[in-house]
Amino acid sequence: xxxxxxxxxxxxxxxxxxxxxxxxxxxxxxxxxxxxxxxxxxxxxxxxxxxxxxxxxxxxxxxxxxxxxxxxxxxxxxxxxxxxxxxxxxxxxxxxxxxxxxxxxxxxxxxxxxxxxxxxxxxxxxxxxxxxxxxxxxxxxxxxxxxxxxxxxxxxxxxxxxxxxxxxxxxxxxxxxxxxxxxxxxxxxxxxxxxxxxxxxxxxxxxxxxxxxxxxxxxxxxxxxxxxxxxxxxxxxxxxxxxxxxxxxxxxxxxxxxxxxxxxxxxxxxxxxxxxxxxxxxxxxxxxxxxxxxxxxxxxxxxxxxxxxxxxxxxxxxxxxxxxxxxxxxxxxxxxxx
Amino acid sequence: xxxxxxxxxxxxxxxxxxxxxxxxxxxxxxxxxxxxxxxxxxxxxxxxxxxxxxxxxxxxxxxxxxxxxxxxxxxxxxxxxxxxxxxxxxxxxxxxxxxxxxxxxxxxxxxxxxxxxxxxxxxxxxxxxxxxxxxxxxxxxxxxxxxxxxxxxxxxxxxxxxxxxxxxxxxxxxxxxxxxxxxxxxxxxxxxxxxxxxxxxxxxxxxxxxxxxxxxxxxxxxxxxxxxxxxxxxxxxxxxxxxxxxxxxxxxxxxxxxxxxxxxxxxxxxxxxxxxxxxxxxxxxxxxxxxxxxxxxxxxxxxxxxxxxxxxxxxxxxxxxxxxxxxxxxxxxxxxxx
DNA sequence: CATACGACCGTAATCGTTTTCGGAAATAGT
DNA sequence: ACTATTTCCGAAAACGATTACGGTCGTATG
Lengths: 338, 338
Fold this sequence. Notes:
Two copies of one chain form a homodimer. Chain A is of the alpha/beta class and 338 residues long.
């Protein structure tokens, strides 16, 4: 390993000058700087992360916290990978790196986050899969760690967040179905305590009421956010009488299983029952193609990163403004399912 | 932030003793150790990552390298999340943490890895999406970083690897189809330079030859590893004459698009054309259910971690043996597609 | 009683980097 | 010619942890 000391010895100058040269500080001769840069390139010098961050008190790393395990809590892999890509295009301009902080399924997320921030692993955190009440916000706020969340929560410590417009989606979807003549609309509410479920269900109920329709408890279906969950809930739907003539769902992963389950019960999606959901890469390749709501995940990632930077003291000069709270719009793709 | 110094002041002892107590070293009174542990718990002390790893020369972090971006290179959905979960169950027993090192789609993976290891970010690396020739192996070998790869490569620096048994899959699939009477079998080879494509295609060709059958170049279809890629390749398949009566594919993501594309071309999967592929959470919810090869991703992760530990000097006492090279078996799930 | 030894703890060096401070040399100003 | 100012660089102090080393007790052994 070639450190700054080897580099300094090689050039026969002091480590202080080398450091200043590499970091673009003043007080170093142009010619000297050139020599240092050249030698660093030649010897393949890269500053040691631990030494640097110990001294600077910051790591240059932004962490995106997510939970591992077979049951994805809210989104699929492709979802995050696209968001990550957007986040990185912004962060890389500031020489920040993004890593995914992986919380094991058998560790408490709160404890994991506590351990991780106390270690000083990352300068800033991006949270996802926000719950109805989410103590992680208070933790990060208490430790004064810059963070942003992809998702809202009832817990409010003045944190910035960006969230998909589940309420707008509910509104457009319900109105579309009502206009098409549906009077008996059901919704699928993914299991668990994710906040988005509440937002979505509440707004659905509200919009239905505006049209003089009620959302009977009998037509609020709970399902695990997985293909198998979709399959299972299809049989519940099939067994209801009266059976809803349309279904709106907020989770993207459920839909393949849902289609299959309905078909197995002799109910043809798009014909016997209307379905409106969320876009996923498969959505347009189902039969019938899913009518769904989509968004640019990359742009979402970009926005996430920019707003995160705005709450990081060392970078906020670039992005000023009040606490960012963005409800990200989604657009409807007309399929053949509803 | 409460550091070791605050802890020592609080207990009115020296930082040396505190450190020894926390790390289970000798030379510390049982009663003192108890008090230290108690105070650490109470004050929420967690050793600073930078300070510790600077001194120790190791970080306690294992990195899993993967590339971000909308086009997943080889696997989809819950694949990685399940593998991660297995990896972590092993690593956590040794107080090691797993993070995903995210290489942006517009950064060269080799350069990214170089930067990351030179910084001393992780003690060990897990590679995935291995290419036919993969310079990353040489890089890690040169820097003497312990690593393992999920996937083989022609590049050989004596590294350990675990890979799915794509050759076994090819063999079982081809034999099954031949036995069912198929004489004109095509394969889908995902675009790119991933090594698994070569392994799979070569073995298919070989097994066909053993049965006196040839794999015409006309029936080797290249496709982007995505739903859209599956849809596109379906039209190519449909346009061939003679058209293959069966298709074997090694990528799990393609299949939804493939089904749809074939149907749009008036070809019914499982009826007009047999299809055998890889398991994914959707596979059993397609119509007809996909005949596919599956494995326990969690167990794969566990094995990956154990073999990684065996090449990490600080841990290898627990797992001895020669360089591990595991061809991971897959089992057939009989669906209705082929 | 003197010596040896073990148990326990504090001191200080160390890891690799950044950054402050002061000094030397060169240049400019009078 | 003397002072003031600028330019450049080296010395050294941090950052927070681990750990080698030595010192102070108390107890056991001869």
